[in-house]
Every structure is written in structure tokens, then in C-alpha cells.
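HUMAN:
Just now I want nothing more than another pair of eyes on a protein record. I would be glad if you read both lines and explained how they fit together. I have put the entry right below:
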Amino acid sequence: MTITSAICNSFKVEILQGGHNFNDSSGAPTGNTFKLALYSSNSASLSKSTTAYTAPADATADPTNTYEVTQTSSGYTAGGKALTPSADPVLSGDTACVKFNDISWTSASFTARGCLIYNSTAVTGFTTNRAVCAVNFGADKTVTSGTFTVQFPAQTAGNAIIQIA
């Protein structure tokens, strides 16, 4: 088990079936709700084969059975936080790109090794909490009584966290 950075294979199929809408709140139609869940250990099983976010059996356990960051006195809540698209998807050259605003947890005390971006919007015919991509931070990132921030790269080809070339 490990966290491997990748766009999830199930997402690739679901995007062609109409299962994901990345428009921001001003877009027409309004986009889906995407979330970012944090994982505390490289022992978490996240990769291109991940199909959905799965809540831990006990969100207060340390470690949780899914290795999601524990919510006990950590400033983190199981399931993570909602992401806010900073703009509708755009083309950068021939690559479609998505950009989210940075996301932060305040008064936080935990260690995160990676994350899963997933779509929590119920869409008829699709699984809820559909996985989009897994990200390994490359090393443990620790915060103690402070603010933990995930920063998203530019909405350009070769940089955007989610891109289709």
C-alpha cells in the first residue's frame, strides 16, 4: 500500500460519461462539489486504481483504518474540506486545465503525506464520492498548532493539478 500521484482511471471514464463538472459557482451549469481529504501515512492505498473516497471506520482512531488524518483534537474533519474552483476550466495550448483555490486547516496539529481529490456531488448513475486524483506530497508534512495549507499550481498546461491533454 502506498500513495501514488495519478489521475484516477475511473475519473477518465466518468469525465466522458458526464460525471464531473468543474465549473466555478458563476459557470453555467454550476459545477459539482469537489473535496480534498488528507492522508497521514504513505501506507494509505491511493493510486490510479482508486475509484472513490471511503470514510474511515473510526475517524477518531490513530491511525484510521484508511490512514486518513484522524479528526481527534487535530483541526481536521473526516472527509476533508470542500475545494473552490478559482475559475471555469480553460485551455492552455491544447490542454484543458482546472484550478482550485488554496485550502487551509487552521488550529491544526497533524501530519499529512498525501491527499485525494474527489467529487461528492450525487449524479444519477454514478457512485457518490467519485475519485478524481491522488497526490503524494513526497514527504510527511507536519503542522503543530498552526495552519496547514495545500497550495494549487497555475491553471496552465504542465502545471495544473488536473489537466487533459
Notes: The helical segments are 9-16. The mean pLDDT is 95.
